[in-house]
Write a structure and sequence with these properties.
Blueprint (H helix, E strand, L loop, with lengths): L1 E6 L6 E4 L4 H10 L6 E5 L5 H12 L3 E5 L2 E5 L9 H4 L9 H8 L1 E5 L12 H9 L3 E5 L2 E5 L8 E3 L8 H11 L5 E5 L5 H12 L3 E3 L6 E4 L7 E4 L4 H14 L6 E4 L7 H9 L3 E4 L5 E5 L8 E3 L11 H9 L4 E5 L8 H8 L3 E5 L2 E5 L8 E3 L3 H13 L3 E5 L2 H4 L5 H7 L3 E6 L1
This protein binds ligand EPZ.
Amino acid sequence: MDKLLVHGGKTLKGAVHISGSKNASLPILAATLLTGETCIIRRVPDVSDTNYMIQILAALGAEVERSSGTVRITAANISHNAPYEIVRKMRASICVMGPLLSRLHKASVSLPGGCIIGDRPVDLHLKGLEALGADIDMEGGNMHMKAEGGLIGCECDLRGKHGPTVLGTDNMMMAAVLAKGTTVIESAACEPEVVDLANFLNKMGAKISGAGTRRIMIEGVEKLNAVEHTVIPDRIEAGTFMVVAAMAGDPEDGVTLNRICREHLEPSTEKLIEAGHSVEFSESGTSCVVTPGRNPVGANIVTAPFPGFPTDMQAQFTSLFAITPGISVVEDTIFPQRFMHCAEMTRMGADIKVDNGTAVIQGTSTMSGAPVMASDLRASAALVLSALCANGTTEINRLYHIDRGYENIDDKLIMIGADIERVRE
Ligand code: EPZ
């Protein structure tokens, strides 16, 4: 159980290299189950979530080699049974369902349990797979599914109460690539990670069109082949460091982010500029300099599916607004309960009222260090951001949450001047 000691108040400057995307890597790693040939994936971040997915692939019988960011997978002889011990550690394990069902015509995967960020049912995943012809039985906390003779193309609308589903779209896309005939997914998720998965599958020989729009068409093929692919940059890690720069960056030089993709960062960029900070992109759009504004102002956020404002960035902006003069309002329409970080920030002196999926933040200039508890991945990042600007030392416990999705975040912050220690308990 590691904890982080953050000695606040340092001005940060220099360059950060952004890692490959965790949320693109997870479904892409699962997609390698669709072929018995060797797949090579580059820039897979070394975080616990990708390690869990690799453990699941190995437990299913795939040969897996990893050397720094490159993962080599050969899923020649695989089982259809995903072990509960590993699946329970990570919700995203659910995206092995589509590939297993598509290739083996059967799959057994345990139903994900509760999640601290809110209600996360899988009804839309099952709706898509049943529409493709799968029979699904629930027994003993497991989902047993089979499709005698294989899956059959169909039309299915994946819209839910809170809009489209990212991993649900991924699962249905991966199931449909080897199905007989054509599948049409309506109300599909448009996230860049969905597009990256579709590009990966098309390189394997799939026939997918419309990824990145609300209507995706998949023409089933007989077989998929070996592939090499480099995952997209992590837009949430990049967004997090853009907010770090706005909160604690050098007012002259700012902080430089390298290895990014400008178009994936538009919602965060627009909001930072609206809040009075500066974001300058390089011509290629693969790097930017973020400089804190001299007269920052509060702003309002309503999260939405891409290209709307990402729910995975609302906690980090809450940290920014907690030290920005004026009132800001943050509403999360995708995970209305995703405000665990606010109570911990209040322990540091923030003035935040949370009610019914909305946080009302009164900016203050006097945050002070305190022992705080991380509760989930993005909440823990938000606590680190608040700690960077607080007087004194903040002790962040349950660091395993941040290690799930940020590769060496403390080393990267130290590189730009932060005073941080990781303490092993
Ligand atoms: C992905 O989760 C991301 N995870 C999440 O990032 C992200 O918060 C989320 O998309 C939304 O952008 C990965 O990519 C691994 P959803 P996913 O299905 O696909 C409801 C992070 O911090 N819903 O798009 O599981 C659901 O409850 C993580 O990196 C149903 O009702 O999210 C939510 O309200 C956290 N039924 C909404 O849809 C379903 O069957 C969107 O969830 C599925 C989802």
